[in-house]
Structures are given as C-alpha cells and as structure tokens.
Amino acid sequence: MVSGTTARAAELRDSSSSQFGPIFPSWESKHNLLWGRQPICMEHRLHEHPLFSPDNLAALIERYPTGKYMLVHVGGRGEEKEWREGDFGGLSGREVIESIAHGRMWLNLLRVHEIDRRYGDLLDSIFDEIQGHVPGYRTFNRINGILISSPAAQVYYHFDTSGQSLWQIAGRKRVYVYPASSPFLTAEELESVCLYHNEVNVRYEPWYDEYATVFEIGPGQMLTWPLNAPHRVENLEFSVSMTVEYGMRDIQRKFYVNGANCMLRERLGIEPGTSIAGPSYWAKTALYGAAKVSGLLEAKRRHRRPITFHLDPKVPGTIVEVA
C-alpha cells in the first residue's frame, strides 16, 4: 500500500501550477469590489488539480511529520463541545482517510506549503491571479493547509485574526458566516484572541444563526469573508478542503493594536482606541512587542492539547484511548 501510494505521488511530483491554467474560471468585475468586504462564494478549479487526487493526499499524509498536523475528534451536533487530539497510530495514508470517512473527526495538515513546495507554488499562483483582478492587493505570510473531515464532523464557532478563504475540493459542507461586530464578536473577545490565541472559547448562542449568511458549498466552490468574521462549519458529506490564510499591512496593524488593547483593558481598566496609525499605534506596537519578547504571555496562551487517542487499525472510524 505505502509503496504504491508513494510511487503514484512521485509521478505527480512535477505537476506545475503554472501549467494548470486559470484558477478562477468565472471572475466577474463585481468580485473586485466585494473581495475582502463581504462574504462571497466563487467558482475555482482546484478540485481538478492532481495535487488533490486521493493517491497524492494519501502519500502526503504518510510523510507528514509528527506535530505538524492536528487530528481532532469532535462532539456530535447538539451535543456538548468535544475537542480531543490524536494521531495516526501507524496507519497508512489510505487507512487514515478511510478512518476519517467513517468517524467524527477532522484532520488538518498544517502549513502544507512548508511540507511540500508544490502547494506553496499553488498558493502563490492563487494570489498572483487575485492581484491581477484586485490591484494593490498585497499579501504576506501566506499559509495553506488541507482539511480532511468526516461526514458528521463540525468546526465550532470561532474567528481568525488573519485573512481567510476556504476552498472545497470534495464533498459538501454548510458554512455559517456571522457579522464581525457585537454581539457576535465583542471588542473584548477580539482583543483576547489577538493576545492569547484562545479563539476556540469565543461565545456562541444558537440564535446567532438567525443573522448568519449561510452557504452550502461543494467541489469547485470557495468562500471568503471579511476580516474577523466569526464562522462555523457543518459537514454534509465526507469532505476535503484547502484552507488559506494571509496577512496584509492593515491586518497586521489591527492585530498588534488589539493585542495591546487587551493588556490596557486588563491592567488599567480603560476603553482603548483602535487607530492603526499615528503615535498611539506605534506605542501599542511597542507594548505588544515587549510583552511577547518578555514571555509573560505564554502562561495564558492556548497550547496544543495532549494526544489522547490513536486511530483504530481494526475498525475504521473508531479510536483507541491512549493509556
């Protein structure tokens, strides 16, 4: 199994994003104005790319370093939140995919552009094409990951501090995108996440769904939404997606200001401003940088949870508790 998968991956290793052609087959002029400002759904062609074939994904899983992926077992819909992290337990790439397809979990292959340069080349091609449509759209710290998830899996309500997009490769999922404003996201929550990276603890109420923009996406569709917009995901089928995140000048400045504001609110009890220019911005950047260098934030920051299960090699979809 491993040798066959590896051989197939070698055949695909020279696949070039530049030879693949346009990624967005139907970009319209309205998207130039909506991009980054409103939740939008667009067509793409990545589900046709050989990098996302079952053989290539299986081979990628087999060579993924320990500690560079997250395998998370989640609770069922309507049940209490569950988040447990595990590992492959020595299974082959195909067996890992089969187990996920029969379970209630998701696998996030983190920073795949650092593990396989072809995904980094593809990421650059995506942003080159976007910049061709949206002049001046300058990005940095580009990151992509691959998310493989069970039919009954879900991603809990959260938001991100970087620019985000979600690219569906296989299967269907329902995505709820909420306004990036109170009560769906408070200033205190935004500041706390920027400082402590505790985004999984953002408050969610079921009635929020009444005010969400809801998308059902399948292969060949991607979503992007405004900065910091909370969102959650329900799978409708076994799913393969690519996640993309990136920085921009204003995104980075807002991150520093919100992190510093959290310290000012906690230590001095003041209602801080949010300007990302002028003397106040530079003072807050210095405050955030000093706190980060000092190591004072590490005690409160979210760290990876311990590994508590392995995938069961005998019964796909089940897990084995770690002693």
State the domain count: 1
Number of beta-strand segments: 14
Question: Could you give a short account of the major beta sheet?
Answer: 10 strands, mixed
Kindly provide the radius of gyration, computed on alpha-carbon positions and rounded to a whole number of angstroms: 20 Å
Strand order of the main beta sheet, please?
Answer: 1-10-7-12-5-4-2-3-13-14
Mean pLDDT across the residues is 89
The CATH architecture can be named as Sandwich
Q: What would you call the structural class? A: alpha+beta
Helix percent reads 25-40%
* The CATH C-level class name: Mainly Beta
Order of helices and strands: HHHEHEEHEHHEEEEHEEEEHHEE
Percentage of residues in strands: 15-25%
Outline: globular
> What is the CATH topology assignment?
Jelly Rolls
What is the overall number of helices?
A: 10
* CATH H-level superfamily title: Cupin
Distance between the termini: 29 Å
Unreliable spans: 1-17
